[in-house]
Amino acid sequence: MEIEQKPILVTGASGFVGWHVARLLLEQGAVVHALVRPGREVPGLPVRLFEGDLRDARSVQQAILGCGAVFHVAADYRLWVKDADAMFETNVRGTSQLLELASIEEVGRFVYTSTVGCIGIPDDGLGDETTPVDIQAMHGIYKQSKYLAEEAVLRMASQGFPAVIVNPTAPVGVRDAKPTPTGQLIVDFLRGRMPAYLDTGLNIVDVEDVALGHLLACEYGRPGDRYILGGENLTLQEILDTLSDLSGRPAPRIRIPYGVAMGFARLSTAWAGVTGNAPRAPIDAVRMARKKMFVSSGKAERELGYRPCAAREALSRAVGWYRENGYV
Q1: Cis-peptide, bond into residue 171, ω within 30° of zero
Q2: Alpha helices in 47-166 (DSSP H)
Q3: Residue 55 and residue 286: Cα distance in Å, rounded?
Q4: Distance in angstroms (rounded) separating the CA atoms of residues 147 and 140
Q5: Has this prediction a pTM greater than 0.90?
Q6: Are strands 170-172 and 196-197 parallel, antiparallel or unpaired?
Q7: 3-class SS at 308?
Q8: How far apart are CA 105 and CA 18, in angstroms?
Q9: Which of 76, 99, 287, 302 could form a disulfide with 90 if both were Cys (CB 3.0 to 4.6 A apart)?
Q10: Domains with residue ranges and CATH for the chain
């Protein structure tokens, strides 16, 4: 990828996917501006830090000044929130504000990191960028906010702004420090805290492939288009069996009925409303699990040259990193 001489802004560079995007840009010779919340760092990467918040126009203006491209990776990614308005403020209004400032700055490219949750999933087949979907199919505040943010990006693109959308699936791998919900699943398994499982499915992808997909979308993506950045479709049972092979721990054999899981989720979420602490099983997470999130990355492979590794390889890297860094 050819990097122009102007700096490139990466939002969310202190997070999982954003860190890997920033690392690849630096390896390609780019000067990277990183917008981070106060007190956050981008460990191990020589980026230029700008403290601020997507909702604060002044801090965003300082970070984007002079930039030739933007990778908007940051988002409020939680499956349960006590204050839904705060998530919409960050994910929707924050994205719209960043788009406006990027347009004023006349950036040459804007890559927006959405989610596979905004992709339509048919009842009998694989979802892709053409599968019909609307906001009614978005279960939960997070998905709704990302869907509305996508609409904002597409509106700007329809007016000639050079914006591209990428839809990562379930990334795993090195430096998932928080960890993400998929990473937490791996950690829970390695700690022996998964006595049972739901009949669901995910598309597993290595975070390094997702990061490279961002750069490919920046260089080759068509403005106004969406590109699924995925890897391999696996049932949750297949994921757990692979983790068992990699770790030597036994995989659970008890499958929880959906109704039982939803009953527990309702109780857990109700209690969270009282305590203010995140529920162990949010209702939105269980609702999402009812449908296997199986998709195709064929468009990204054809148009961008995207080539993800096998899910087993991605899971192996994740297991190794968690073990090496004291999570188990």
Answers
A1: no
A2: 57-64, 84-88, 94-104, 141-158
A3: 30
A4: 11
A5: yes
A6: unpaired
A7: coil
A8: 22
A9: 76
A10: 8-172+205-231 (3.40.50.720)
Q: Report the Cα 94 to chain-centroid distance in Å.
A: 17
Please name the helix (run of DSSP H) or strand (run of DSSP E) that holds residue 237, with its range, or none. helix 236-247
Strand ranges (DSSP E) for the chain? 8-11, 32-36, 48-51, 69-72, 109-113, 163-168, 170-172, 196-197, 201-206, 226-229, 232-235, 254-255
Q: What are the tokens at 216? A: 């490919």
Pair 117, 145: CB distance under 8 Å: no
Q: Following DSSP, what letter does each residue of 175-186 receive, concatenated?
A: T--S--HHHHHH
Q: pLDDT for 248-291, tens place per residue?
A: 999 999 998 878 877 877 887 777 677 777 777 777 777 777 78
Check if the beta carbon of residue 41 is closer than 8 Å to that of residue 14: yes
Residues 42 and 50: beta-carbon distance below 8 Å: no
For helices 311-324 and 236-247, angle between their N-to-C axes, nearest 10 degrees = 50
Q: Is 117 exposed, middle or buried (0-12, 13-18, 19+ CB in 10 A)?
A: buried
pLDDT single digits (tens) 202-231: 999 999 999 999 999 999 999 999 999 999
